[in-house]
Amino acid sequence: MNFALISLVVLAIVVAVGFIKKINIGFFSIGAAFLLGMAGDLSAKDITKGFSSSMFVTLVGVTFLFGMASQNGTLDLFSKKVVALVGKRTYLIPILMFALSAFISAIGPGHIAAGILMTTFAVYLAFELDINPMATALYAKLGANAGCASPLSMTGILAKNLSEPLGYTGFGLHLFLTTLLSGFVFTAIMYVYYKGYKVKADNPLKLSDIPAFNRNQKITMLAIAVMVVCCIGFKLDTGLFAFVAAAVLILLGCADEKKAIKGIPWGTLMLICGVGLLVNVIDKLGGITLISDFLSSLMTKSTATPIMAATSGILSWVSSTTGVVMPTLYPIADNIVKNFGDGVSYVEIISALTATSFAAAISPLSTGGAIIMSSYSAAKETTTEEMNKMFRTLFLLSVMNVVINVVMSALGVFNLGGLFY
Question: How far apart are CA 388 and CA 246, in angstroms?
Answer without folding.
Answer: 42
